[in-house]
Each structure stands twice: as C-alpha cells, then as structure tokens.
C-alpha cells in the first residue's frame, strides 16, 4: 500500500519532503492524524515492542501545573467495586447491617470504633494513627443519580463525569484530560518540565484522556515504572522502527512523542535516585505497597509531577468476600500508613492528598456465595495532613430504606468531590472546574482545605471521639463507693459448653441491672443484659444475648446497678 502510494511521485526516495505530501497534509488536522495512527482512542500506542503514552501531561494536571500550588494529588482506584459496608461500619445501624449479612458481617468485637456512630474493621487498624493525627476523612454515600452497575460503564462515568454514558458510548474524554488539554495545546513542542501526571496501569480508564491524546505518562504496571525509575531508560529512540513512508510531520510527531517520553524517563530516574536516598520506612512486599513506595521516592526526589494514579484490584467480591476484602484493605491500610510516615520524614506529607474511587459499591444484602453483588453508593476515603482533621463527612445512607434491588441510595454526588479537590486542593478556578465537569455546578465540600476562599455549606461532620466508660473496665473489677453493696451481688462466669459462656448473677434485692461487654481495648462491643431484675438468681447466656456475633477471644463484662459498677473478664470460645 505504501509502495503503491509512492509510485505516484517522481522521487519516491524523497517522499517525506515531496510537495504533494506537504500540500495534502496541510488539510490534515492533528486530530485526524492521531486518529489515523490509532492513538486517539487509547491515548497510547506500541512502538516496536514498547508501550508508550502519546502524551506526558494530563488535563487535571495541566491546570494544576499552572496553578499556584505545590500540592500533589494521588488517585487510588479500587478496581472491581468496593463494598462500602465492609469499609465503614454504621454502628447506629448495626443490627440492620448484621441481619442483612448473617454470614459475612464484621462482628462488633472486630469493629474499630472511631466515633460513636462509625468505625472500620480492625483489619484496617493501621489507619487508626492517621485518624488520631487528623489525616483521615471518609465521605459517606458517594455516587450519582441512576448509577450504573456495569464495571465498564461505571468506570467510564467516574472518569468522564458524563452521567449519560452507556455501553454504547459517552463522553470520550476524562475530567483531568479536559483540563490539561486547555493548558497544553502543543505539549510536544513545549512540554512541561516534568510529567504532569503518572499513571500505573493502562487499561480501562479515561481519567487523563483528552480529545487527541492521553495526558499521563503511562506504564503497564509498577515493574515497568520501577525499571524506568532505576535505569532512566524507556526504549532506544535511535533504533525505534519508524516506517520510512510516513509523512514528514507524522514522523516528527512520533519522534516528538518518543523524545518527550525518553526525556521524562530520565527525569523520573533522577528524582528516583534522589528520593531513594531519603526513604526511612520499610514497606510490605505486595503490588499496592510497591506502588506507594515508588511514588514516595519520586515525590521526595522533587520530580514535580502533581497528579498520580495507582490501582489495587480484586474488589469484585461476589464470593468469599470476608477473606478477600480483609486482605485487600489490610494491604491498603498498612501501605497508606507507611506512605505518610515516609513522607513525614522529609516534611512533605502536608502537600500530598490521596483519595480512593471505585466504579460502584455493593448491595446491602449478602448473596448465596458469602459475597455481595454490584450495588451503588460507597464511601470515598481521603488521606493526608492537608485534611486538617479526621472526620466522617456527609450523611450515611439509610440501610432500612434501600431501593427495590437492595441498593444504598447515594447522598453525595462524586462530582462535588472532584470539584472540591480541583478548586480547593489544586487551586483551579471554579469556572474552569465546572467547564471540565461538563458544566456541572458542583457543591464545594469542607474537606479541611480551602484555596478559593469560598464559604462551605454546612454538612454533617462526625469527628467526636467515641465515649467509653468513665472508669475503664479491668480484670480486677472496679472499686465502687459502697463495697458492701458489691459484696452482696454475686456474679460468676462459667462455661456449660465451649460455645456458650454464661454469667451466674445473684441479686439480694430488686434493681435495674445493666451488663455491658467490652473488648480488651476497652471498647464497648454490646449490651448483654439491660432489665429490671427481682431478688434471686439468673443465668445469662452471653453468646445468645449477643446474637452469636462474637469472635473467639478475651472480653470484659461490666455490671452496673444503681450507681455502682463491677467487672470481670470472661473468655468467649
């Protein structure tokens, strides 16, 4: 085809400079050229055996590069649809939650209570230090009207912000891509000094996609980016197999892409070398931890990139959810904690905000495979010192009023969070933000940072520490004001069988009796008994009273009678 085309010219060997080619190509727009190369749809291409990105910056990254801020944003994609009710447990709706998931709910003894109303599973306990230091916010019920339950469509909507997207089409550009397209109309001629965005994982996401190209420096996986960072090499430009029959400006475009990519590879390497010398934390050896470890080195090495996107997969938990979700969120929590501890060593943690997103949540009710099916609203998690305080933000969806398919209804439009991050963290003007949200007039949410100076609407904010007993329960019991009263009340734990520990209680008089159960951290896990009791004896089956929701372990029960309290340890088998 190429040879036949060149036979129409008198000097086939000078085809690149031929007047016919030049005149013909003047009628080509840059976009049609990129489309002809097959780049427009993917934002990337293979050159030889090497995957390269057709661009280095990204729309959210370009306005960002121009904005007067050194703040950095990390997007964390939870691929597969994260189960929000296994991430943030609504303590005030706990009975409804547990009844909907009799085989997979998080037992109360395994809920880390961060406020009186909300907690996280204890396997996310590595986030507790971040909560205590004001570096963790969770926004409830994030979604949108008529939310798609398709992995592909849902992913596209969270990337392109077009709620009319279907499996047959939708807005082809991403919220970040549109932003950078305005700032870098010709990035090959005048590229930013450092990649505007870096994305690990090149499949199925439009976040950085513009009309003509993808604006992120994309690598297939963390291994590829690690290799670039360690060596500074992406591929050899000189031996790149360019086709000699390409038009001159086509060839120059491809070489421009190659040169930009190669130049960025060198800058990534230089930053990596500087940052590696400053690492002060040991990370776990798993894919997600390695991504954050690498990002920490690039940030510490002052690469200059302002937006990163990383991924952790496996959240499509139709089966075996308790084991899978525990592994995923445990890895995420430990890595996030290590990451911010690492950045704090060089006092760079205040400039880095991380936020999670997923294509949808999951249903309230468990399925028949110890899992949950595709649902709607789910929480978005934010991390970083820039949050200036930890809190649960917004209104948690009501579990007792799901839609007809058992889905939570959203209470926070995801575009409000995107708009807030762009305007208040990355300091992009509201007019530009709304343009890149396809005209959506976002509601700014108080997440703890404020670049625009706008006043935020009042919104539910739960950050009060949980209330615990005035005097922590102990194995020795507490000493109340009237020891004679205590001595007249007999309470003894005993074990008629291995699964049903009982409390034998003898009352010398009629009184209201309240028995609460605490874990070994002093956190209340439930009420065992709360009744008026006449004089006499009673046997109280702890596990039966707690709806068989307790895991094996040591607990402490506390008996309150009038203003007197006494406690004793008990082993739940």
UniProtKB/TrEMBL annotation:
Residues 1-12 have a biased composition (Basic residues). Residues 1-20 are annotated as: Disordered. Pfam families: DUF1501. It comes from the Bacteria. InterPro entries: DUF1501 (IPR010869), TAT_signal (IPR006311). This is DUF1501 domain-containing protein. It comes from Flagellimonas marina.
């Amino acid at each position: 085809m190429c040879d036949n085309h060149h036979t129409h010219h008198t000097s086939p060997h000078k085809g690149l400079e031929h007047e016919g080619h030049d005149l013909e190509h003047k009628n080509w727009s840059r976009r049609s050229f990129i489309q002809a190369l097959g780049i427009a749809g993917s934002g990337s291409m293979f050159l030889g055996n090497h995957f390269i990105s057709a661009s280095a910056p990204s729309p959210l990254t370009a306005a960002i590069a121009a904005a007067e801020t050194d703040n950095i944003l990390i997007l964390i994609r939870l691929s597969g649809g994260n189960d929000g009710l296994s991430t943030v447990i609504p303590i005030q709706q706990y009975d409804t939650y547990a009844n909907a998931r009799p085989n997979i709910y998080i037992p109360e003894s395994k809920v880390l209570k961060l406020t009186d109303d909300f907690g996280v599973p204890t396997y996310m306990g590595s986030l507790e230090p971040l909560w205590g230091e004001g570096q963790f916010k969770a926004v409830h019920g994030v979604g949108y009207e008529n939310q798609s339950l398709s992995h592909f469509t849902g992913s596209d909507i969270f990337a392109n912000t077009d709620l009319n997207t279907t499996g047959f089409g939708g807005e082809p550009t991403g919220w970040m891509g549109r932003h950078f397209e305005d700032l870098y109309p010709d990035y090959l001629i005048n590229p930013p000094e450092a990649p505007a965005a870096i994305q690990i994982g090149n499949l199925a996401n439009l976040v950085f996609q513009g009309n003509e190209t993808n604006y992120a420096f994309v690598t297939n996986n963390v291994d590829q980016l690690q290799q670039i960072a360690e060596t500074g090499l992406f591929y050899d430009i000189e031996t790149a197999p360019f086709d000699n029959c390409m038009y001159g400006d086509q060839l120059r475009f491809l070489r421009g892409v190659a040169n930009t990519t190669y130049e960025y590879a060198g800058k990534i390497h230089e930053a990596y070398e500087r940052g590696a010398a400053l690492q002060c934390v040991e990370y776990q050896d798993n894919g997600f931890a390695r991504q954050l470890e690498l990002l920490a080195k690039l940030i510490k090495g002052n690469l200059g990139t302002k937006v990163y996107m990383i991924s952790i997969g496996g959240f499509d938990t139709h089966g075996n959810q308790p084991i899978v979700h525990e592994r995923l969120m445990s890895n995420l929590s430990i890595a996030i904690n290590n990451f911010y501890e690492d950045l704090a060593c060089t006092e760079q943690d205040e400039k880095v905000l991380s936020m999670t997103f997923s294509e949808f949540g999951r249903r309230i009710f468990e399925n028949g495979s110890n899992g949950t099916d595709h649902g709607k609203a789910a929480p978005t998690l934010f991390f970083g010192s820039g949050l200036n305080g930890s809190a649960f933000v917004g209104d948690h969806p009501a579990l007792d009023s799901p839609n007809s398919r058992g889905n939570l209804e959203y209470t926070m439009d995801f575009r409000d969070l995107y708009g807030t991050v762009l305007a208040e963290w990355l300091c992009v003007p509201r007019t530009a933000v709304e343009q890149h949200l396809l005209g959506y007039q976002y509601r700014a949410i108080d997440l703890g940072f404020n670049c625009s100076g706008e006043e935020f609407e009042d919104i539910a904010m739960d950050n009060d520490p949980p209330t615990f007993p005035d005097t922590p329960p102990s194995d020795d019991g507490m000493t109340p004001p009237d020891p004679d009263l205590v001595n007249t009340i007999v309470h003894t734990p005993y074990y008629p069988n291995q699964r049903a520990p009982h409390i034998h209680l003898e009352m010398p008089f009629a009184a209201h009796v309240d028995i609460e159960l605490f874990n070994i951290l002093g956190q209340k896990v439930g009420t065992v008994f709360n009744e008026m009791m006449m004089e006499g004896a009673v046997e109280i089956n702890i596990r039966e009273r707690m709806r068989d929701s307790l895991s094996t372990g040591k607990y402490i029960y506390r008996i309150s009678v009038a203003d007197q309290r006494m406690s004793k340890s008990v082993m739940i088998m």
